[in-house]
Structure formats: structure tokens, C-alpha cells
Structure prediction request, 1252 residues.
Amino acid sequence: MPLDPITLSVIQAGLQQVCDEMDLAFSRAAFSPVIAEANDRSDGIYSADDGSLIAQGAGGLPVFVGTMQYSTRTLIGMIAAGQVGAPEPGDIYIVNDPYLGGTHLMDVRFARPYYRAGRLWCWLSNTGHWPDTGGAVPGGFSASATAVEQEGLRLPPVKLFKQGQMDAEIYAIICSNIRVADQRIGDVKAQAAALDLGAARLDALLDRYGEDVVAEAIAELRARAAAQMRSFIRDMGAGSHRGVAWIDSDGVVNEPLEIRLSVTRSGDDLIFDFTGSSAPCMGPMNSVRATTLSSVYLAMRHIFPEVPISAGAFEPLRVTGIEGTFLDAQYPRPVSGCAAEVSQRIAEAVFAALVAALPDRVTAAPAGTSGNFALGGHDPQRGRDFVMYQLSGGGYGGSASGDGLSNGCSTIGISKAPPVEIMEQAYPVLYHRYALREGSGGAGRYRGGFGLDYEVELRRGTARASFVMDHGRFGPQGVLGGSDGAVNEVTVWRGGVAYTPVHLSKEQDIPLSAGDRVHVRTPGGGGYGDPAARDPQAVAEDVRLGRYTADEARALFSVAVGNDQ
Amino acid sequence: MDRRQSGQVAGIDVGGTFTDLLALDPATGAVRLAKVPSTPDNQAGGVMAALGAAGADPAALDLIVHGTTTTTNAVLERKMARTGLITTMGFRDVLELGRRTRPQPYGMTGQFVPVIPRDLRLEVPERMDAAGQVVTPLDEAAVLAAGRTLLAAGCVSVVVHFLHAYANPAHERRAGEVLATIWPNAHITLGHAILSESREFERGVTAAVNASVQPILARYLERLTQDLAAGGYGRDVLVMTSNGGMVSARSVATEAAKTVMSGPASGVMAAAYTGRVAGVENLITYDMGGTSTDVALVRGAEPAVSNEIEIDHALPIHVPMVDVRTVGAGGGSIARVNAAGLLEVGPESAGADPGPVCYGRGGTEPTISDANLLLGRLDPARWVARGSVTRDVVAAVFDERLASPLGLDVTQAAEAVIRLANTRMAGAIRMVSLSLGADPRDFALFAFGGAGPLHAADLARELGVPRVLVPARPGLTNAIGCVVADLRHDFVRTLNRPLDSLAEGELAAVFNVQRVEGERLIDAERVALAGRRLLYSVDMQFAGQTHLLRVDLPGSEVDRATLQALFEEVYFRRFRVRLDDIRVNLVNANCSVIGMRPPLDLSTLIDPSGRCATLAEAETARRRVYIGGGWREVSVYWRDHLPREFELRGPAVIEQMDTTTLIGAQDRATGDAHGNILIGIGGPDAA
Prediction:
């Protein structure tokens, strides 16, 4: 007898609940602020046979939407091949190898086999961004690494917990290779406890509805998610859609990297063909296969947020042509930029390709950079070293539903930026400005949102400034006649002299002395539609609020506004 | 201190749809109740109408306690007074930039409108650093010029918000003095005075909201007190604040931001009071209305209070508030079949207008209330009598929109809507309680609001909650909260130090300062009190963590070893993790000073003279109700006729003017001496 649709909906909500509770438990108990505050983590349930995604927490970091099923699949394959020890109840594997279904080294995955009546029934897995995993620079975001070994400690899948007991020897090896190791035990326990909680909740769900019914529901939900995605694809119309996106440089070789994408409907499937994209690069702006696939899924989820996260939703999305490009980098290519930057450019290529086919759903390009500025130095007043990170937002793209949001989070993230007051409490810096970047939104019928304009001074001691940003050379793309948003701009004032990084948005270890300043202007979002079609009153309002000057209004929107405040 | 123990008290709560009143005469024990339509443009109209409807003479009242949504509505609908901001050079956009968030994790669209528009945000030269040292002196002439510009732009209220004013408020204070020389009214808000904590966006928004609703609240209370005075009432009006306390109408506008959750707070206060009286002190409050459901946690008869609530996307108001979380499901939530052929319920709602199909106001979308009607849980005769819609019309809508596409019959479709809605609500309630560190199975469900008692037993079953408490007047709970709420002042002092660096007695000294200040404030209010209570707690964490864990303390004098042990125990209960080698930080010391109001005899809320001697006499009908997987003939009782203490086995339906309570097939309901119904949850009844 087929399952009734109600039991199906109830089990769907139940599986989702298991994952949401794991997310919550992980964040609340974690020490790493990247996990606890920025929610840079994700928890999910994966099938026993091939690791395909059954359910994932709604509050997980978007970039992980598709990665864990590949890391689980890889683990299952390695176990079958005898490369990794066979699972037993209470085991938890740890792995952060980017080439085995991952992102960058800082994203550490745990996988816990889940047993039912002595049989492996599914996998519970989570990912958490550790603040450090060793390597050349604190935090792992080196702009100039040329091999993965420079980026940190790489762990193949190993059992960190064996039948419920942590392996102190493996843990000791990890701790000897990472910075601020003393707090990691808290994160390890939080990450493991979240999976234990998930197991207990799953027990309750299976006790209540029965294993067979839940298994049947999982299969049916997967089929239905696929059907839902296919129904959207069918509505799209035939033909090929092309999109491109560029990365300023890889941080080592100062040449742009290109993502070339063509999206074609094939029956009810969409083929994402990346043939012709740039070759693997010297610097850390490579992506690995799992991150590339996940970025496509993430973009589609931004477009169709109503389709539940499950392997079924991804089934009709087929990615080809990445072999031999920088989107499928192999060992030992450096990859620290893949999750924070390359993934966002891939999403932009998807948006650019599909906006004409889905004009009511897809936005112009968002600022799309995590805006990573790191300042490491010595504070003579406190007598200690410090490492400060300033992540920043930018403008979102305009869309059929209105203007883009100003200072939004990265496409792949959901985390908040730190307050200026907290930064000044913790580090020897003084911000002179933290402001809306006027004029940065791309012109359009619906304009892009505005970026951020901040300027920060080193008050004492010496320090080194590093930048891993993007869109310094190419602004976020406008669409359907809209203009590009403003490019990212970095200026470093040393001894009163302005310095612009050679790679514009990326550079490692620029020395600063007390009184030197860093000035960052983040990108605005792309404009949507013909700027001349913009409501003149909306243009006048932007001028009145000082977002554009009257001259800009005339030049960009062909609107004469008298009053320039 | 008990100055007016014999005085008559009226609690009046103005909600979105209705204004509720409960008036109490302690001398005779007489209780008057009224429910009249709210008057959104000037809520005083509803207040006066409620007094009239209850036959309460304002001149005879000694005290009016008032819950109001004046500021809530102003904030959520963004209908605020024209307000200007004067801030530190370089930082006028802080209120617009926020913390770089977007409204939802997926979907790159959405808008954000700052509390104060950009042209009314002006900068002046001044700067403090994080240590409170002056980097740039305050330019007083620039403050004057900015004030004049804002006045010329039509501002009626102004907020001064400077960076690091929590560390050193001298510049904000001086700017306030300078502005006072030209500002024509008292509406000057200084950021540090509302919230003295770091984080410029959160502090700035809190202050900006305060300034923007202050003139509105002041004007409203002025009108209300005038109307009441015209009716003969010459005493103080106390206004419910978001932390479940009360402040005099004479002074509340100064801290207007503290009233934005006034209404929901009073409901939770009533729940806490009822729970304490009934001996059920751990509650999850469940207030299900037409468009949404409010959930809060009460532990040991104390509502959970938070200082970090975001009441809308990127709209944090960081003052102490009863931690009420809103779930997007109510009686008007719409059911539909999605593109994958799966049933969904909500988050879209038919609202109050047109409302569910069964309201007969033109609603055409199937809703939760309609499903309850089709299953006989709501009385079709009572509902259909109100409008032009018959049960068949509702059934036809269900057939077309849900049953046919799903391959079910109408009853199955209605049952499915209820089951799914209950699953979703239960999931949301579980997330709320877990995020507050509580396992729902350790709590009872306190059901109120128009729709709460109808779903409560099923939800409790779903959550593993063993008991449901349905108070005597579920539809008047907020007004009851106004009558029973205490005077309350909350203090937070941030220490943020390793526990082992704390001197013995240091914490007790901090608590002592807080206690003395709270007692001074309470003595200044002219209100009858039955006694005082003090609550002490600390917020702690392991060094390196960012989240805090609240640890309740038995008193003000607790030594370090005990603090360490209490924290470890709370941490283990919450996370099942022990971390022996990591140092512990004591972040905040919290003290609440509470002036307890005289008790309310809850048993008077249902007129004792109307009660019958036996259950059988209270039975008004037998009705076919779909319950426990099938149609059954079920006894229907009139709540006001039930014997005060009774026991009945489900299935049963208990109706009253303001709500309907459903008792599941294996549940057991009892009445207690206070007029509450307690439902013991039985086996796996489902739907």
C-alpha cells in the first residue's frame, strides 16, 4: 500500500526536525565563534548505501547544501575498498581532505554511522568551520599559497571516536598541528554531541513510525523533490542559456580566471556545462568537485527556495565539463578560496545564465565576496600578538521584486559582521568610517544595493594586512540592461602614501605601522533592467537621501534632479 | 507599604482585535469581565468602551493596569514619529547597514527600511575609544546646528547615539544638555540611557525605536488619562512593560521601547501566576490566535526573560523582555497542495479579514479553523450561524483544493491539515524550548488564545508533554496578566571576568547595589503590595565561548566553588558534555527586584453560581466529532456549567464563550479548585 501523503508530510517534518536540532545543539555548545556566532556549520542525514542527502538542517551554512553527501559517499567508497576501517556502533570519523568531498581545510566533517537492529541504517554527518587547522597563516586563508600543505593539516577519514571513546592519540596529533588548540576540545565534543543527539531523535522517529515506513517515505520524498524541481525546469522553456563570471586573480598569478557556463534543458533535467572554464591555477582560488556541485545547488536553491533540501532536488541538475578546469582541482592544488570566493562566482554564473529564462526569480549579481581582511600584529600596550578578521557585506542585485539589499551577507553565508565597538575593544584599531558606499549600486530599473565603505587605523605597534576579496576588477554583473555594481576597492595608506594591492582584491602581509590606515569599499549589487525605465521618483528619492549625486542620476538614469543635498 | 489593599483594580489589555477587561473588587470578590472591539486609531476608545461594557465606574477604581499595543503596532507597521539621529562622524549609516544580514537564508531578494531615514541622520565631530577615552572632543556648536536642522525638517523627537557611549556617556549627556536648550519638548533619547552595552547597531536601533515611539506613546497615554479623568478616575495608570513588570504612565514614555512587547508579556505573566497557584510551575505557554502562535517558557513560575530579542528582520530591541517567540501558524493559516503533490499548511494566513471560509466574510482558502469545523471540533451550528456560509460550502472548498488533488475524502483532508499543522507547531515549540535550554517533556502546556485549547492536547501528545493546563478564561488571559503582574525592575551588570579572579563577596556586593536601587524604584510607585521577592542569576560560559548560559542562584551570597559547580551542572544538563580543563567566565550578574501584588482568587473568574452540581447537568449536547481516527458521538459541555471540581474521560468537547477545548479519546480532564482544567495526556490518540 502506498504511503498516504499525510504520513509523508509528517515524516518529512520529523526528519527536518532531527537536523534542525543537531544544528542548534552544535552552535550553542561550540567554542569557535565561526560556528557559534556565524553558524558556519551544517548537520544532516545521509543514506547508508551511497551517502545521498536525506535531510539537512534549515539553518546550515548554504555552501554546505551539497557537500556532505559527497564526503559521505567518498567515505562509504573508501570503507568498501578497505582504505578506511569498517564502521562500528559509536564510531565517529573525522575528515577535512578537500579532495575527498570537501571544501577548504578549515571545514572539518564528522560522520557517524547510525545503526538500527544491528544494521547500518544511515549516516549522520556534520561540518564545522574550525578557526584554525595549521598552515602558513592563522585562520587558513592564505592569499598566496601554492600547495595545500601550506594551507594546513589535511586529515583523511579516520576514526576520532571508536565505539564512543575519543582516540586521544589522534587528537594529540591534531592539537600539535593547529593554533589555539586548547579550546578545540570544546568544539570536538560539541560536534560529536550534536550527532549523538541526532541519533537519539532519529531513534524516536523510527520507533514511532517504523523503519520500513520511514524508509519508504524517504524514497518517496526524494522522488517528489525531484518531481518538484523538474516541474520548475519544465516551465523554463527550451534552449541554451549562457553565463560567465570572472575571478580577479588567483592571488599568485595576476590574471583573471573565467567561469564559462552553458545551461541546457534536456528533457526535465538541466545540464550545467562548464567546458572552457580556466585551467587549475597556481594560487588558492581553485575549487574542488564537491564545492563546485554544491555551488550550483546553492544557486538553484536561492532561485527555488521552496524545494526541500534532499538528494532528489539535485537529481535533475547535472554538472559536466569541469574536468581539467580550476573547478575540479586535484591534489596538491591550493583551495582555501573555494568556499568563500569561487563558490560565489559559480553561483553568479548560474544567475547570469538563468536570469533571462527566469526573470521573475533570478536577481542581478550580488556583491558576492566574503570581504576577508585579516590584520595580524603585536599590541605593545597589552604585550601580546593579535589576529583580527573583518568580514564585510556588499550590495545585492536588483530583481523583478525591487532594489537590491545594501550590505548583505555573502551569497554562500548567513553570518553577521562584527560590530565596530567589539573590534575596537579587542584590537588596537580605530575606525574612522563605517558607511554606506554612495553611488555603488548598479543602475537599473531596479538598482543594486549599496556596498560598505570603511576605513580603519592601526593605533599602535606594527601589523600585517592581508586581503582575500574579489570583484576588484569586474563589478557584480547587471542584467537585462542593468549596469554592473561598483568594483571592490582596497587602499592602504602607509605613512600618508596610498598603496593599491597589485592584485587589487588579494594580497598577503602588507606591513603597517601605527597611524597607517586601510580603506575598503565593497562592491555594490548589479542593476536589473533598463535604468531609463526606473521610476523617476525613486531616482529622486535616492538623490535626496544622498545615495547618488544629481550628476550620477543624470548620467546613470537619465533623470534630472534639481536638489543634490 | 500596603496603602490600598481594599482598592478595586482593573486590568485592561488592548489587542489587535479585541480590548479585554477584568475588574476586581477585593472587598466583595466580585469580578467583572468585558471584551469589546479594539479601536486601533485611538486605543483609548476601546478602553473606555470596555469599562462601560463591564459596568465599571472609573471613579470607583483605585488602580488601572494597562497592556497596550500602541508601540508594538507603531514599530511593526513602521508608523513612527518623525525622528532625527545625531551620531558620531563617520557612522550615520550604522542603522541602515545593520550586521550584513538578509531576511532569509535562501533567496537573494528582500528589503530593509531603517528606523530613521538617511536624511534625518546627522553626524557631529566627537569620538570616544573603547576604553572611554576622548579621541575627538564633542563639537557642541555642531550639535546645536544639527538639532536646528532636524527641527526644521519637522522632527518631533531626537536620539543621540555616539560610539562607545556605554564606556563613557559624557559626550551623549553633554549633547543632550545642549539640545535641551533648543528642543521644544522632552523627546530627547540618549542611547546609553536605554541600553548601556556595546554593539553600536543593536544599541542604536534600540534607542532609535525608543525615540520614534516615545511621542506616540506619550500622546496616547495623555489622551487616555484625560478620558479616564473625565470619567472620574484620578489616580495613576500603570502600563505593562515587556519584561512583565509595570511602570507608571507618568514616566513610561521616557523608556517607551520597554513597552513594545507589553501585550504578549501580560499573557505570560498570567500563565506564570496561574501555574504558581495551581502548583504547575514549569510551563510552555501556547497562545494560538488567528494568524500566529506565541510561545514562551515559564520555569519555577518565572517567565524566561531575554535582553536580546529581534522583533523583526534586523530590528533588535535589546531591553529585558519576556522571551515570547512567534510561530507562523494560527487558525487562519492556509492549507495547500504544493508542486510536489505534498500538503503544506501556512505560513500564509487568511488573517482576520477575509479570514477562514467558515467566517463567511469571503474567504476562499482552506484553513486550520475550517478543518476544525469539518471535523466537528468547532460547532458548525455556532459558527455557521454567524455568516452566510454552510458546512457544505467549507466541505466543497476542501474537496476542490485539497481532497481531490491528494486522492482523499474531505474528512481525511481536514484531518490531514490538523495533523500536519500540529506536527509543525510541535516542531516549532520544541525548537523554542530547546533553544532556551529546556526539554519540553519536563513542562506542562498552558493553552490560551482563541484556538490554543483546541489543539493543546494533540500538541502535548506530539511533544511528549504529560499535562495541559487550560485556564478559566483563555480568551482574557492578557487582561488577567495585567491584574496579577508584579512591579518589577531588572538589572544587569556586566563583569566578564574569569570566575577565579572574582574576590569573595564581590558578587554579593554587586547584587546588593542592584537590590537597593530596585527597592528605591518600587517604593516610588504608589501601589498596594503584598510583599517583595528578589531573583538572582548569573550568565556564565567556558572561556572562549560566545554563547551564555543562565544559572539561577539560590541567593545573593554564593561562593566561587558553588558557582562553578552550578554552572557545570547546568551545562551538562543542557549539552551532555563535561569540560573539566577549561576556565569559566562569569559574564553578567542579574538581579530582579519584584514588588508582589495582592493575590487574585482565580476561582472567581467563572461565576460560582452558574456551576452545576454534576457533570451530566453541564452537558449541553452530544455531537459527532472526528477524533482518534474516526467519527464518534462525543459529549459537549458548557465550561461555565461544569462543577468546580470534576473528572471526565475523553473524548469530550468543552465549549465556552471565548474558546473550545478538545479532550482526546484517552485523555483525562479534571477541574481544580481555581477553575482550571488540567488534561492528563493519554496514549497515542493522534489527530
Remarks:
- The CA atoms of residues 88 and 162 of chain B lie 5 Å apart.
- Confidence is low (pLDDT under 50) at residues 1-6 of chain B.
- Residues 603-680 of chain B form one domain.
